[in-house]
Amino acid sequence: MEHFYVITSIQPKYKYLSGPALVAVELSKELTKKGYNCTFFDTYRSSKIKSLLAYSNIFLKILFTKRATIYIHSQGYVTSLIFCLNQLIRPSHKLIYTMHGLPLKENTYRDKNKKIPQGVYIQETAFKTLLNLANNVICVSNTQAQHIKDNYTVKANVSVIYNGITPKKITLSNQPYCSTKKRAVMAGGISNRKSIIETIQAFLLYNAKNTTQWTLDIYGEISDSYRVPLVTELCAQSKGLISYHGMLDQDSLHQEMSKSDLYIAMSQWDTFNLAALQAMSFGIPCISSKQSGISELISHNNNGFIVDAESPELIEDCIEILRNIESLGEEYKKLQKAAHDIACNNSWTYVASNYLRLAARN
User: Fold this and answer.
1) 265 bridge partner residues
2) Among 56, 92, 319, which residue's Cα sits nearest to residue 202?
3) Backbone angle region of 103, left / alpha / beta, with phi > 0 → left and psi within -120 to 50 → alpha
4) Residue 323 — φ and ψ, nearest 5°?
5) Three-state secondary structure call for residue 295
6) CA atoms of 78 and 54, how far apart (whole Å)
7) pTM for the model
8) 194 near 188, Cβ under 8 Å?
9) What region, left, alpha or beta, does residue 173 occupy, with left being phi > 0 and alpha being psi -120 to 50 degrees?
10) Is the Cα torsion angle 14, 17, 18, 23 positive or negative in sign?
């Protein structure tokens, strides 16, 4: 009987699962629910010695498994080394590597005055190794897949499987559309890559010139600390309408999403943006940049909105969308339902089925 292994690293500094860790946990749950023999491994340990022992345990268990499909959701260089050895000894094992991010690409959007950390280049080397070891590479968007094909040598088959959500039941309010105060949420934290400054400026300018007032609540970690003073200054100018709240656990973040009218994901680059899909599952339309993988699930003005994060008119384009939302009135509820429907088409159950189909083809 084939045994499935799902491998990731859950960083304890984060208060909630996100990105690779969340996808790996949900995939493991779905495989188990479907009756498959599945083992989940969290490779994170508090010290190098403990980490080495954990990897040794994983390696030995997999090595002595006759038929194994290994799903990797981690980009660490130790993971790369371990599975290099495994493939040499057990070439019959199926190695499926899911790429959730592109560390070197993503770090180009950090502070230009700071060097890219050495650890990023180590990750890049590990990443290239896995691209050549895996039977299949799964990308989380066509945007990401195209970047890989254009910039790397890949021996594996490259497939695209979007991330998923747990479907939510929503009830669209029967109350009249409120045109005087609306609420937007952003979970990208203080990050250049997430267009944090441009997003705040767009809401400030809109509120200064319109009767309808938008609040903007920002959640997430501080990735670019040098941006904190400017973010603080801009939030102060909003007179309480724009606020940064830091990290939230998953349940609390979902509660905030469910109480909002719009989700903001105008990243300069994002392989996917799972938080945006989660917001859509609550019937919350999203403003996404076309540089974000989530934009592939968005039809402009039908279930959300798309902007160009590289355009010098990004702020003006965002303001225009906010103005258009105000003019939609009750029609906005149709857009909310469409956002919910497309998100629920990408349930974790559906995602797991795609992973299984891919493994079966090899």
Assistant:
1) 288
2) 319
3) alpha
4) -70, -40
5) helix
6) 11
7) 0.92
8) yes
9) beta
10) positive
AA letter at 81: L
Short-list 194, 220, 206, 217, CA closest to 288: 194
Question: Can you read off the two tokens belonging to residue 200?
Answer: 């705040």
How far is 291 from 271, CA to CA, in rounded Å?
8
Residue position matching structure tokens 């899909």: 277
Continuous H helices in the chain? 19-33, 48-63, 77-89, 103-107, 118-133, 142-151, 196-209, 228-237, 250-258, 274-281, 314-328, 332-344, 348-360
> By CB neighbour count within 10 A (0-12 exposed, 13-18 middle, 19+ buried), where does 327 fall?
exposed
Mean pLDDT for all residues in the chain:
89
Which residue's structure tokens are 């493939």?
87
Strand partners, 328: none
Instruction: Count the residues in the chain.
Output: 362
pLDDT < 70 stretches in the chain: 12-18, 75-77, 172-180, 362
162 in Cβ contact with 141 (< 8 Å) = yes
Residue 282 and residue 299: Cα distance in Å, rounded? Answer: 17
How many Cβ atoms from other residues are within 10 Å of residue 149's Cβ? 12
Written as one letter, the residue type at 238 is S
Integer Cα distance of 113 and 43 in angstroms:
33
Helix (H, G, I), strand (E, B) or coil at 183: strand
Write down the residue that tokens 């969290």 correspond to: 42
Residues with Cβ within 8 Å of residue 182, at least 6 apart in sequence: 212, 213, 214, 215, 261, 262, 325, 326
- Axis-axis angle for helices 196-209, 314-328 (nearest 10): 50
Radius of gyration of the chain (CA): 21
